[in-house]
Amino acid sequence: MGRADHNFSASTILSGSYQFDNTTEGQPDPYNQKITGSPSRHQNAVMTLQHIFSPGLLNTTRMGVSRTHATDALDESALSPVATNTSLGFFPGNPAGIITIAGLTGTQGGIGASGADTLNYTSFQWGDELIWVKGRHTFGFGGRVERMRYNKNSQSVPLGQFDFDSVSNFLLGIPGQFTSDEPGSRNIRGIRQTYLGLYVDDAMRYVPI
Questions:
Q1: In this structure, is the dihedral angle defined by the CA atoms of residues 131, 134, 136 and 137, taken in order, positive or negative?
Q2: Within a domain: residue 30?
Q3: For the chain, what is the radius of gyration of the CA atoms?
Q4: What is the pTM of this model?
Q5: In a domain, 11, yes or no
Q6: Which residues have a Cβ under 8 Å from the Cβ of 84 and sit 6 or more positions away?
Q7: Domain count of the chain?
Q8: In what order do the strands lie in the sheet with 34-37?
Q9: Over the stretch 59-86, which tens digit does the pLDDT of each residue have?
Q10: Which residues span the domain enclosing 104?
Q11: Which pLDDT score, from 0 to 100, does residue 181 have?
Q12: Which residues contact 135 (CB under 8 A, 6 or more apart)?
């Protein structure tokens, strides 16, 4: 993170700050075939301009942007060639899907089988505030606009999943059920929102007699 300030004059000050953090979290599956994790990244930047018109009149303008990228259950890399072998896939041209067996530790499939939630959220903000001190009154006038962009891509079992009720059924190749996202489907959602707020405020200072 960092911050910078610049004084154009005794009455005009510009300041800005930037924050960045990056997180990587991952672990291998039970058979050491792949690494699945939840990497995330966040960035935030704010710029503020203050100008003093007079001892009783101050204006503050702010601009900011905040962006978050987060994932959950994302297959990041292969530890074994089996994880990328498309000849084992339930669907042509894809790595193997997930296999569960009652009473045993099943496989989590190849690269891409875990499914993932990928979230991208961006917020743009603009605001202005004017403070006017007059006698016992402090008047405030201001407004704020925020534009939000939220994109989500959620997958459950994109490469398919066979569930076997017993070891004997697994050896006989008789699954209890098969589940999968629709092949080639994309569960992408985008939300766009804009907030606008305006205010007028009068704070009166009490002076005891």
A1: negative
A2: yes
A3: 28
A4: 0.75
A5: no
A6: 78, 95, 110, 111
A7: 1
A8: 26-28, 34-37, 74-78
A9: 999 999 999 999 988 898 999 999 999 9
A10: 18-204
A11: 85
A12: none
